Every structure is written in structure tokens, then in C-alpha cells.
Fold each of these.
Amino acid sequence: AYANLEKQLGDKATNKNIGIKYNSECFGDQNYTITKLKADIKTVKDQNYQPLGPEQVSEHGNLIVEKILPDIPSFSSPSLNFSNLAKETELLVTKPISESDKIQALVKEAGLNRWVNEGRAHHRNKHNKCAFCDSEISSERWANLDKHFDEESELLEKSIDVLLTKIETEKATVNNASNIDQSVFYSKFHPQIIELSSRLKAAGKDYHKTLDDLIRQLNARKGDTLNSKVFDLPADRTQALKQAWR
């Protein structure tokens, strides 16, 4: 029985198929012997020994098989432009448009104004009669419409479109900076990365809400370019997002 036990210990220590010595990539000792195995058995039989749980075994196992990862480049938080975007939004939302040469029926009803403006594009140089009522569109009516939808109104609408694009770019910048590639970090850091990613996404979501508020007000003005609006400044979430990045 003793000889059989010694053989089992010897095989576990140095057998080429199952020996710890030949599994050094896992156990880390290419010079492992039966003497070392007996010492390890004595260690784990001690009453103060605390065995690893399944999660710890899995964690250490993953760490063992990990390859060396390249250095992670230093991160710098992107420049946020909420303050400037808010100022530009206020300027366009509250910008007055001259009421001279305006068709009052269209000034009073934003939906009708948009409908007529779209109709101009469909009819100009295409139809001599109104496709809706089949009445002839006189040159005088065209002149009145062109005065109503003047360069000032068109410039305001174009400026709003440009600013909307800038705000969408700001949202994309925040999204890109909030996405963390977990695979470039060693597995032992993954819990911290998951927590950091969660904080970033929460802060980014709040920042997006402030930008969406600017977008809402710009779209409202775009739908009624002839009438200025009262600007409502959203809460600035810039510092909260910067703090999450730190």
C-alpha cells in the first residue's frame, strides 16, 4: 500500500502525462518533485489553510493563460462644448425676423407656413397652377411669397441645421469616449472596467439629455422660423461627465 501511494505521488509530481512538473505553464515550476508535492499536501492539510473557491480558481486560471497585452495609450477626456452650443442655440431660438413684407396668415400659423414653403419648392418652374386648388399662380403671388420667405428666414433655417449637426457630433464624441474596450485590459481589472463603464454611460446619458433639450428647442424654432421663442437653458452636465472620466 505504501509503495502504491508513493507511485501515485511520484506520477502526480513528475509523470510526463499528468505530472505537475510537465504542466509548468499552469503551476509555474519546471523543477517540481515528489518532495515538493508532499510539502504542498502538508500545507493544504493545515487547519489554517483557506482553499480557493470556484470563482477564485476561475479568475486565477484566466490570468494564467492570458497573453501579454500591449501598453494602453494614455486617455484624455474630449473637449466638451455644451456652453458654446447652448449660447448658439439661444441666439437662433430667440432671433427675431423682420415682419415687413410678411403674409400675416402664414405668420400666425406655423404649420400652414411650412406647408406653403414646401409647396413653393414643388411648384417653382414646374407648375403654373396650384396643384391643390388648380388656380393659376400669378407673378404677383410669387413675388409676395418670395418676400415672405426671404433670405433672412432661409438663413436662419440653414443656421439651425448647421447647429443641429454640431450637436449630433457632440453626442457622437461623448459616445465614442464612453465606450471602453474591455479586451485591452487584463482580466483582473475587468470588474473595475465594468464599474467605470457603467458610471460613464450614466453620466453620458444625462449629458445627452441636455443636448436633446437644445435639439428640441432648435426644431421648434425651425418649424416656426417667423416667430422667435423663449430659450430655456438646460442644466449643464459637463462637470459630472468630466468627473466620471477622471
Amino acid sequence: MENEKKLKKLQKFWSGKKIFITGHTGFKGTWLCIMLNLLKSEIYGYSLNPKRKSLFNESKIHNFLKSNTFSDINNISLLKKKLKLSKPQIVFHLAAQSLVLKSYENPVETFRTNIMGTVNLLNCIRKVNTIKSVVIVTTDKVYKVDKKNKIFNELDILGGSEPYSASKVGAELATESFIKSFFQKTHLKNKISTARSGNVIGGGDYSKNRLIPDIFRAIENKKKLIIRNPNSIRPWQHILDTLNGYIILAEKITKYKRKYSGAWNFGPNYRNIKTVELIAKKIKLNWYKKTKSKIIIRKNKDYEESKSIRLNCNKAKKYLKWSPKLNIDNAIKYTIDWHNNNKLFNNSYNQCIEQIKSFEKIK
């Protein structure tokens, strides 16, 4: 009963809202589509074709999308056309090249997608008068990491030493530039924000070179798992905590005149900020005790990543009344339960719906 009340309260705002989502075929994008469909929104997706093995294909969410466009974010004419046709009220920009190692392999694609893709979207929305709010999703890796092991808040200096983080810094700077240069005297004044979230885990992530999917593949195939940068500290959190933050932010920007424009951190509580090695061992030892796969610690000498990233989320807690619901153990349990139940019942969409409803019960 309590769960139904919470969903109805959310539906009161989101029901019937026209939502334009870039990157809707990705891991985060698919979960966001499923959440918003549960809230009875009208969803218009714009993204690259999904990979064959993907949550998007497994969950068959194309069945409820109002529009499902497969194209590059740098196809400006088509992007502009789809935005004008859909007449959205809220835009979530998730389209990105989101893998650190891939950014080393193809830096040009990474910079073009993450910076110019964001610029293209911002330029296209300038004349779409129906839009009430925009959330640009970046990353926790936009901060300039030093040896002080500090906890970053939204006012800290930005900086990226490798292609992925640098491209996301570029997206942040481009967004700030457009806000100041083009939106101060328009309907989108104080209506555009960026969301910086930590390392997201959850069911249906099949990406290569991501810790959790790599662990699952190693376990299922009974193969060795080589962990790069085992001592790196990351703000691990479940995807539902992250997307809950995005949804609350978008609703606040849309409903109120108060200034919600700018950057927002969404991360776990400090006690849930763990090393890569500890997360891997938690999964193997706590839930997969009988597995024959071996975890091998081998430092990656080819590519450098930030050693420690910790987020201060006090701003979101104070002004958005958002806070993470799942600690690291529960986040891992949700992820493994989704994976196991999906193998058993072969219904990705239902697994997502059940976990969303379970999540909403948590106070």
C-alpha cells in the first residue's frame, strides 16, 4: 500500500509528460525508460543502435516508446527534427561514449561524442519552446584529482588527465557556456543542470571492461578475472539511486522557479566508497563461494585512471531532499538477484519493474 502511494505521488507529476532521452538504448537509458514508463510518461528515444546483447533488446522497451530513433547524436539535422516533432517538456541527455579504456582506443570518437554531442543537443533545444527542463548527465570523473585524497563538491576545480574524463569536462564547460551565453533571457533560464554520478552498478549491464559485468562473465565461464587498478577507490552505487536523483532533479527544475541550474553530485554515503578489489571480493566471497573463477590482481600499466574519487552529495541532500537508499551490500545484492532471476525467468523487463517497486518501498 505504501509503495502504491509513493508511485501515485510520482505519477501525479510524470504522468503524460513528454520526455526526450538521448542514449536511451544504453544501460542507464534503458532503466530510465522503464522507470518513466512505470510513471506513465510519454518517452521519445534518440540513440545509436543497441548492441545485440543489451538490456534494451532483452526488455523490449521499444514496445512502449512513442518514438524510437536510432542515430548518432552528431546527426544535427535529424536530432533537431526529432526534438521539434516530439515537443518534449523534459530532456535527459545520456548519449555518450562512457568507457575509459575505449576512450584510449578511440579518443577522437570520445571527444566528438561527449563534447560535440552535448553542444549539438544544447544548440538544437534553443528554439524548442515546449522544453521546461534539461538534465545533462556527465560523470564523477570530471574533477581534478590530486594526491590529497579529497572529497569533491560541485565547486571544486574540474580537470581530466585521460580522454574520457577530459571529454566530460568539455561537456560540463560547454553546458556552462551555453547557459551563460544563450539561455539567460529565454524560457530555459535556470532550467538546465548537469548530473555527476559515481560508478553505477545494476542488472542488465553487459559492457566490457566494467567491473561487475566482467566478474559475472568470469564466473559463468569459470575463467580468470584480471583486475586493473585494484586499489582505485570509487563511489559505487546502484542505478536506481542514481536515476532517482536525476528524476527528482528534473521535477524540481520543472516545477519551481528557484534556481536549480548548475552541477549536482549523486553518489553513495562515504562508508560505501570502496576499492575495486574489495567490491570484486565481496561478490565472489559472499554470493559465489563455490565458483571456480580466480581473481587475479594485475596492475594495468598501459592506461592510467584516477586513484581515488569521492563525492560530497550534501547539496543534493539539502536542496533536492535526495539521498541514497541502498548501501553497497544491498546494491550488490540487487545486482546479483537481478542477474540470477533473469537467467531463471528470462524476463528482463519484469525484473526491472520488481526492483523499482522494491526500491520505492525503502524510506
Amino acid sequence: MTTPAPETPAPFHLPKDAPILVAGARGMVGSALVRRLQAGGYTQVLAPGRTELDLMDTAAVQAYLAQHRPAYIFIAAAKVGGIHANNTYRAEFLHTNLTIQNNLIHGAHLAGVQRLMFLGSSCIYPKMAPQPIKEEYLLTGPLEPTNEPYAIAKIAGIKMCEAYNAQYGRQYISVMPTNLYGPNDNYDLNNSHVLPALIRKAHEAKLRGDAQYVVWGSGTPRREFLYVDDLADACVFLMERGYDGPLLNIGTGEDVTIRELAETVMKVVGFEGQIVFDASKPDGTPRKLLDVSRLAGLGWVARTPLQDGVASAYAAFLDKQGAQRPTSRLGG
């Protein structure tokens, strides 16, 4: 039996009234995508919450996609967390992320959705990958053990998109954001990523009048941080241009040490104490800086400086807490 040749995709143009699904719209990344799409004049942004659409329910996802027939899907839904959460809830990080992305990618195909963007994570790359990390370094070495289950799930999502493209002629692309932060972040001290955890620790230390605040690890690892609204802008940029190429990194192309990050947070929050590093806690990957030259070649670069982004994130944190903003040491 002869397998039918993949259908040739039509030239891409997305009208402003086309339905666009943002899966994970209540999270930090998803909510930023919704803001960016609405600001761009898109009038049918589908942003279902968990009560409206359970992404773990295969039948529910397929029924939703069959009913709404989105012209484009952003997969921003995922179970995420910092080193502690990744290393503690290894089974949940693997099972939940695989289930969500399998339901959405396969469901999109069944519903005839031609275009989709899968958002991964820079942890997909080998722990000791050369720096800066190029897209072609994927699967060239062992992963960082503390977040291996999450990384494996994301790698599976990338390969799933590639497989549907090759077999069925779909245009399902994958983008790899660097470390993200911004409004609607998770500030739980046990399960959050490093930057929101530092913001909360510095804020609470300031309120208590502490002389110091404790930062996990040695302070020497280097990390890159991208403001989440910049990520959303990059994603919509690629969508509007009909990008249909291989895996693509999204980042700033610049990194800082965890010590420098903690000092920036202190400056924004206005905490006058001292940083103490807890070397008994894991550092994770020594350095993680993405090579963003492929994206820059397409005409997009990040716009938000780290200190400005941290200030916006801190303001959003205070709004969420219903707290009065303390006077910081920032000028202006």
C-alpha cells in the first residue's frame, strides 16, 4: 500500500479575526502571549482555563480542537519549577508534560490544524554543552540530572513536532526559550525558579529587617534571563512571518552569575543586607547561555534590560501580594 504524499501547505497569512489557541493561557508565558496577541489586534484569542479545558484529558482536548478549529496553536502549557521541584517530583514532571503535549500535538493534527508552536526549555541541551549553546547541540551529550525528566519530555515534544511535519506535512515548529521571568510568575520558595525566589527572599528579608538573605548554591553558575513579554513578542513575530524552519533558540544572548543576579534583585527591592550562599544546595548546570544568532538573523532581538525587567517583575509581585512597594535604590 502506497503512503499518500504529504499535502503541500498553502502560503501563510493569518487574519486578525482568525481563532488562535493559547494553551496554558493562565500561566506566566501563556498570559504574556495573550497580552501580545490582543495588543496586536487579534480578536479571537482562545484562552481556556483548566475548568474549561483539562489538557490532561485526551478526549476533552480533541473535542475542543474539533469544535474551535484554531488556525494557530501556541503550546505554553507545562508543569514547571526550579531545581528542587524538578528533582523532587520527577515522575509528575515527566508524565504531566508528556500527556499535555501529546494531547495537544496529536489533537491538533486530528483537527486539521496546520500550524503550531511548541515552547520548550533550554534545559533540553546537554549539561556540558559548549557555550553559547547552538540549536544543533541537541542530543549530543548527557542532560543535567536534576531536571532530566522535564528535559526528556520537552525533547519528546520537539521530536513529535518534527515527526508530524515529516509524515503529514504539518508546520509544527519548536522554540527554546532561555530562563524566563515576569508578571504572573510563581514565587513559591520551594518550587519556583531562581529569579522569582530571589525576589521573594529579598522582599521578605527587607520587611523583616534582616541583615542577610540566603541564596542557594555557590553563586558562580551563569544564567541568561529573558523577560516574558519579550518572549511573547518573539513568538508572535515568528508566527506572523510564517516561520517554518528548524528548532529555534529565544534569548538575550547575554548571561550573568547568580551572584550578579542576586545583587540586581537587592538593588531593585532596596534590600541593604548581605548575600549568604548556601553551598550545600545544588548549583545545577555551570553555565547556560543560548546562541540566538539564528533568531537575530531573522530580525528579532530582546529589548528589555535585566534590571528594568526585574523592576517590572517586582512590581507585579507586589501587586499580586497586595503589598505596598518599598522604596528602592533605583534612580527615578
